[in-house]
Amino acid sequence: MDYQLRQYGRASLDFAAEIAGQIGVKARPVAEAVRAAGLDEESLAEDLDSRDQQILDVAGRMAGFRVSNLCRDWYCNNHGQIAIRAFEEMGEAFASGLDQGLSGPTTLDPNPAYQPPSWWTDHWIHRTHGGWDGHPYMGFVYGELIHGYLVSRIASGDIDAQRWALADSLPDIGSGRVLEIGCSSGQFTRVLARRHPDADITACDISIRQLEQAQRTLNEMGATVKLIRCSGEDTGLEADSFDVVASYAILHEIPVDVTERTFRETYRVMKPGGLAVFGDVPPYEELDKFMQWKADFGARNEGEPFWRESATLDVRALLQDIGFVEIERFGMTDGPYPFPYVTRARKPG
After folding, report:
1. Which helix (H) or strand (E) holds 290?
2. pLDDT tens, position by position, 61-107
3. Would you say residue 24 has pLDDT above 60?
C-alpha cells in the first residue's frame, strides 16, 4: 500500500526504529556473564521465575543490559502513539482514500452483534496504544506504520519470507476451501491469496479495524477473500467444510483455554482428511534454559501476556485428545530459535 509520511511521522518513526534496535537481550554477553557466574544448564533453576531472578542478579549489573531495558520500555510505551500521530499528520484526504479502499472484490462481514472476549479487550497486545481497535484507522496504523514500517526494520529474520515458507508448505489447494484464523491486517492472507490464487479463502479476526485494513490491501491486489469478524474458537461456520485451516503467529496471542477451543473448532469445520497448519513460536522444550529465559523475558516485557503458557503447552497431546492424526511439529528455519515453529495435523478421513 502506497503512502507518503510527512516530516513528523517519518522522523519520529525513524527515531523509534533506532531506539528499538537497541532493545532485546544481547544474548552472547549476557550468556557469557551467566556462565562466568557459574550458572549452567545444571544449576539454572527449572522454575522460570526462579531462573529469571538468577539471571537478572547477573545481567542487572551490566550497563548494556540496563540501557537495553530502558530502550524497550520507551519504545513499547510510545511506538503506538507515535504511529497514530504520524497517521493523523497525513490528513483527512488520506483517510478518505482509505475508506474508498474498502470497496472491491474482498467482502467483510462485520458481525455487528459480536462482543469481543474480555481477554482481548483487557490487554494491549504488544503494548500497542489502545489495542487493535484503539483508533478508527488502527488497521492502517498497525498494519502499515507499526508492522510494515517499524517491525520490518527491527525484527530478526525476514518475516515476509517466513509467511511465504508457511504458505509453500501447504499442499496444492487448487480450488479448495481455506480458513485462516486470526488474520489481523491480512499479511499472511495476502500471501495465501498469491500462492494459492484459485483457492476459496475465508479469514477471520476479532478486530474490526484490522479486518478493514486486510480488506483494503486484498482489494488493492484484486483478491477475492471473505473476511469475517469472529474468534477462531467460535466461527459459526459450517461443519466439515474446509480443506485447510491455517494461521500464522496467532496461538501465542491467546490464552491456552482459547487455544484448546480454537483447535476443537478447527477440527469441527475441517472436512474429513483436511489439514490444519499453525505457525507459531517454538515450544520451550526445544530450547536450552538460557534461550527459554531470553524468549520469556522479552515476551513478558514487550506485551505478550500469553506467550509462556503457549510455549509450554503440550500441543501434540491436546491435538491427539481432540482426534487429530498425523501430527507433526518442526521448526522451519535453522538455528537455536526457529520461527515459525509449525504444527501440522489431519482430521481422519
Report:
1. helix 289-301
2. 999 999 999 999 999 999 999 999 999 999 999 999 999 999 999 99
3. yes
Cell of 198: 484459485
Q: What is the pLDDT of residues 252-309, one digit of tens each?
A: 999 999 999 999 999 999 999 999 999 999 999 999 999 999 999 999 999 999 999 9
Rounded to whole angstroms, the Cα distance separating 298 from 285 reads 17
Beta-strand pair 270-280/341-346: antiparallel
pTM: 0.95
DSSP track, 199-265: SEEEEEES-HHHHHHHHHHHHHTT--EEEEESBTTB--PPTT-EEEEEEES-GGGS-HHHHHHHHHH
Give the start-to-end residue ranges of the domains of the chain.
Answer: 158-346
- Identify the pLDDT of residue 154: 76
Question: What average pLDDT does this structure show over 153-168?
Answer: 80
pLDDT for the residue numbered 88: 97
Describe the strand order of the beta sheet including 200-205 as a list of residue ranges.
107-109, 225-229, 200-205, 177-181, 242-248, 270-280, 341-346, 325-331
What's phi and psi for 185, nearest 5 deg?
-90, 10
Segment 29-59, tens digit of pLDDT:
999 999 999 999 999 999 999 999 999 999 9
SS3 content of the chain, % helix, strand, coil (to 5): 50, 15, 35
CATH code matching the domain that covers 158-346, chosen among 3.40.50.2300, 3.40.50.720, 3.10.290.10, 3.40.50.150: 3.40.50.150
User: Measured between alpha carbons, how far is 219 from 215 in angstroms, rounded to an integer?
Assistant: 6
Query: Letter for the amino acid at 23?
Result: I
For β-strands 325-331 and 341-346, DSSP reports them as: antiparallel
Q: How far apart are CA 190 and CA 337, in angstroms?
A: 26
**CA-closest candidate to residue 275, choices 178, 165, 202:** 178
